[in-house]
Design goal:
about 50% helix; 9 strands; Aminoglycoside 3'-phosphotransferase, Chain: A, domain 2; two-stranded antiparallel ribbon; about 350 residues; 5-stranded antiparallel sheet; single chain; 14 helices; Phosphorylase Kinase, domain 1; alpha+beta
């Protein structure tokens, strides 16, 4: 059995001790926006004004930090920008990281929409540099079977919340998806960061080329089809990406590569269905299990991605079963889940 989580006060005391041991005594701390995991992030300032980022990843809740350290070192080794590690205590789950600042791509795009296309182009260029390189060893591979298994949150969490049909149909969905993925996807696998989107990218104007893109939240990296991270960045659950930019960035990605465009776009749509169905389930789980209702208002956008992807002719059999099993998220459903989240103890 996992050990019980420490109290908030005990965790804060442990963080303070870690900072003191790391040479940052009496550091001032300010919480940063977290992600969808149990990790917490604080910006910390030393007495001399130097800043860094404290990652608090409780070992019993957020996994160990070895993967973050290993993938981060790999990314820096190939000329990309992952935060340098200033101090670590992996046993307790603390890292002190280089502070990339506040130039989050999503925020920069919202403040100045004229920058949107150029920032997405830089994000695509990172993939073009990263994907041809030999990936680190011992990564999980997202095979067709594994991709099908990863649909489980949609049936376990979203389906009952939305009032869908019995889960027998969900097993049929996983089997059909595996068959389509096996038939449609090429054997090529590359390093895939998985959570590659505009809130995990930081603009670093003092760096050149692809190094100007600061990378965050890469510890869950896997081996997957090259379209996976492209779907992640262009079919964002958190913000709208206009169709013209999505089309232009796919073309930028494919330019000069050996992919058959028609086959690649079918794989892109298939992975778009897989990724977004999984996100539906995860967002409901975050609300119901972890008390995070803020993700519920994103469900209609995610459902919109699913519908667009299912319109691809190669996915007609998948479209039939998805529309049979899963109801669309409605305003009433989202409000009901939100109220349940606010009134039920977690």
């Amino acid at each position: 059995m996992p050990e019980p989580s420490p109290s908030i006060e005990a965790r804060q005391q442990a963080a303070t001790q870690f900072l003191e041991t790391a040479g940052w005594p009496a550091a001032r701390r300010q919480p940063l926006a977290g992600d969808a995991s149990a990790r917490r992030y604080d910006r910390v300032w030393a007495v001399d004004g130097q800043s860094a980022v404290l990652m608090d990843a409780p070992p019993n809740a957020a996994g160990n930090l070895d993967d973050f350290l290993r993938i981060g070192a790999y990314l820096r080794g190939v000329g990309l920008s992952a935060p340098r590690v200033l101090a670590r205590d992996t046993a307790q789950g603390f890292l002190l990281l280089e502070d990339f600042g506040d130039g989050v791509f999503a925020r920069l795009m919202a403040d100045d929409p004229s920058r949107t296309r150029a920032l997405y182009a830089r994000a695509i260029d990172v993939l073009l540099v990263l994907q041809p390189r030999r990936a680190p060893a011992n990564l999980v591979e997202l095979t067709p079977a594994r991709l099908g298994e990863m649909l489980e949150p949609a049936s376990t969490w979203y389906l009952p919340a939305a009032g869908g049909i019995a889960q027998d149909g969900a097993a049929d969905l996983a089997g059909l998806f595996q068959t389509l993925a096996h038939n449609m996807m090429c054997e090529l696998r590359c390093l895939t960061l998985r959570d590659y989107h505009a809130e995990n990218l930081i603009w670093l104007p003092d760096r050149a080329g692809v190094a100007a893109v600061g990378l965050l939240d890469f510890q869950d990296a896997v081996l997957a089809h090259p379209a996976y991270d492209l779907v992640s960045i262009l079919q964002d659950a958190r913000r709208d990406v206009c169709g013209d930019i999505e089309t232009a960035m796919i073309a930028r990605f494919l330019s000069g590569q050996a992919f058959d465009t028609k086959d690649f776009q079918a794989c892109y749509a298939l992975l778009g269905v897989q990724r977004n169905l999984r996100i539906l389930g995860i967002f409901v789980r975050l609300a119901q299990q972890m008390g995070k209702p803020q993700y519920l208002h994103l469900l209609p956008r995610v459902w919109g991605h699913i519908r667009r992807n299912l319109a691809h002719p190669a996915l007609a059999p998948l479209a039939a079963i998805v529309h049979q099993i899963f109801p669309a998220p409605t305003v009433g459903m989202i409000e009901r889940l939100r109220q349940e989240c606010l009134t039920s103890p977690k």
